[in-house]
Design a protein that fits this description.
- The chain has 210 residues and is an alpha/beta fold.
- It is built from seven helices and six strands; from the N terminus they run αβαβαβαβααββα.
- It has a six-stranded parallel beta sheet with strand order 2-1-3-4-5-6, sandwiched between helices.
- Helix 3 packs across helix 4.
- It is globular and about 40 Å long.
- The two termini are 32 Å apart.
Length: 210
Amino acid sequence: MNTENQQRNPVLLVHGIDDTGAVFHKMAGYLGLQGWSVYSLDLVPNNGDVGLDKLAKQVADYVAATFAPEQRLDLVGFSMGGIVSRYYIQRLEGINRVQRFITISSPHHGTVVAYASQRPGCVQMRPNSIFLKDLNSDAVILGQLDFTSIWTPYDLMIVPANSSQMPVGSEVIVPVALHPWMLTDSRSLAAVKAALTNNVKLPFLKKASS
């Protein structure tokens, strides 16, 4: 039995726009009862007034201040929080800390709803934004992690809803009617638990040349 792969990392939850860490109340309680140590932070400001890259720096700072340097962790990002988390992983060396990465209804390819605001963070979440094009240009590196995208085809905040699909990792479709319910529906919670229980990928080792 591989006890290393069964070891449970601490789980960091990253919220979406206009939310705080409190939005994960049910999920955090659920995961806590299942034996995980769960953490969350409040991104400031949370309304899109600053770029998602700035919020990702807050995630990086929180990780550095909260966990020992050698501690690996699992990261769950909801909506905007999934994109913030991707920037942390892909641009701020989070790839070296995170083992499992889960996004829930995140606009990986943008959402037309973001056109309703001129705030920098919202502009970055528009379809074909420079910010998202940059992140998606090397999204393949997420394949180094155990990456899962959980989304609903009925999402009215992530438009089109299949913007949450990614060409790497796994996906779980949960037919939830409303965007916020993705954090409370029992099917979503079960999907998160399953993704956090996946055996972590082992480092790729090159064969020594003969």
